[in-house]
Amino acid sequence: MTTAPASTPATSPSDPELTMSRDQIEALQLERLRSTIARAYARVPLYREKYDAAGVHPDDLRELSDLAKFPFTDKEDLRRSYPFGMFAVPQQEVARIHASSGTTGRATVVGYTRQDLDDWAKLGARCLHASGVQPGWKVHNAYGYGLFTGGLGAHDAAEHLGTTVIPMSGGQTDKQITLIRDFAPDAILCTPTYLLTIGDAMRRQGIDPRTTSLKVGVLGAEPWTEEMRTELEEMFDIDACDIYGLSEVMGPGVAGESILTKDGNHVWEDHFRPEIIDPFDAGVLADGEPGELVLTALTKQALPIIRYRTHDLSTLHPGSAYPGHRRMGRISGRSDDMIILRGVNLFPTQIEEIALTVDGLSPHFQLELTRPDRMDQLAVRIERREECSGERAREAAAELGARIKKGIGSSCRIEVVDPGVLPRSVGKLKRIHDLRGL
Ligand code: DLL
Fold it and tell me: Residue ranges of the AMP-dependent ligase C-terminal domain (predicted)?
């Protein structure tokens, strides 16, 4: 939007795989896939059992399309193997552990060898550079540090790129603001909703977020929309790019977005083979068709992960800025976050998309599901913008209800609340409050 990167991100000489052709990438994928599957079969009992039960053997993988013969893995496999049952190396070779909190059931634990950590840092750095972050810049990292892969993953990526990292972690918003003003970072790494929280808090302190030193935001870890990109870019006068990843497959950096094209995350296909499947019958779909993203890690040593069902809903498209690597369409949501409202499927991102087109409404909203009289009901609680009150706020509410009805086909109750009333995000924001079982 505002800044031109000092050098073209596509031309880093130390990263030859980035500019490989599609054919070269696919040849490399086949070679890496063969050795990964053979290694997983030899070293991880779970893979051996699954493949034996399905009647497939690593030798059956002769071309890339043969991957479809192999069974999927999912979060349940990791849970059942808790904590280290799917690791393929002795513990002494595991250099780091991360875990996802697991809102339901046990945490899922993941591990990295030294080589895995180096690959991760390299791919994360590739994302940051693609998104316009330059070596020598100061980078404010507000992803949470700890077992979550966001903080340390983004940290290593920024260090690998040769930036000066400010390891702020998530939360303590007032302190974030002080450090952003005093240290004058060029880039910020955090979730999109947390950047919104920071901008909002700045305004409340009388600081215009557009006057900070920030030029670029690399934002991910939760679904967000093009409308939110515009909101944040205008709020801070920055370029905002997406970054995707998940702990089971690596962490942040599985895919990243080019500042030059801003057209979705390129999956780094020298290290990951993506597929899109039908979430219901699990058949592999053609590029361009919407479905569930399935990822295979091609180089991971400590935790080989083959055909992992992410539950993230997306599409695959030909690469643009990096033609050898395919691009993901924006994630509309997770299949397990889908609200089924009287037969209509709905994702929070759809509400975000629509709400941000209504004058006078802010991006701060919550969805509340209830079941009075055995009928599901959705209420959208959304903050008005400061300048929109009284009759204008009532009109905005009616407008939002009408646009949701027209765009999604569901009727819902709209409750416009005062600015600052709803809880603010400090990381991944929980948009849906399901009160149906209470
Ligand atoms: O959220 C890793 C990450 C950290 C990615 C920082 C980007 C930045 P998990 O906690 O395991 O890992 O959660 C992974 O978050 O399956 C998606 O549902 C969601 N997610 C991650 N990035 C995006 C994104 C990290 N760019 C889960 N857009 C994934 C939409 C995202 N959803």
Answer: 343-436
Phi-psi region of 122 (alpha: psi -120 to 50; beta: other; left: phi over 0): alpha
**Interatomic CA distance for residues 324 and 207, integer angstroms:** 43
Ligand 1 atom closest to Cα of residue 254: 5
For residue 264, pLDDT over 80 is answered with: yes
Tokens of 394: 């009532």
Residue 6 pLDDT > 90, yes or no?
no
Q: How far is the CA of 292 from the centre of ligand 1 (A)?
A: 14
Q: How far is the CA of 18 from the centre of ligand 1 (A)?
A: 22
Residue 312 Cβ < 6 Å to ligand 1: yes
Which architecture characterizes domain 1-336 according to CATH?
3-Layer(aba) Sandwich (3.40)
Rounded percentage of the chain residues whose pLDDT exceeds 90: 90
Atom of ligand 1 at shortest distance to CA of 242?
A: 26
**Ligand 1 center to 376 CA (angstroms):** 29
Report which ligand 1 atom has the smallest distance to the Cα of 218.
8
Answer yes or no: is the C-beta of 252 below 6 A from any ligand 1 atom: yes
Contact 207, 180 (CB under 8 A): no
Domain with CATH 3.30.300.30 in the chain: 339-434
Question: Could you tell me the two tokens for 22?
Answer: 């599609």
pLDDT of residue 168: 98
pLDDT per residue over 124-166, tens digit each? 999 999 999 999 999 999 999 999 999 999 999 999 999 999 9
Ligand 1: nearest atom to the Cα of 312 = 18
The DSSP bridge partners found for residue 312 are: 334
Q: Helices 45-54 & 22-43, crossing angle to 10 degrees?
A: 100
DSSP-assigned letter for residue 292: E
Query: Which part of the chain has CATH 3.40.50.12780?
Result: 1-336
The domain 339-434: what is its CATH number? 3.30.300.30
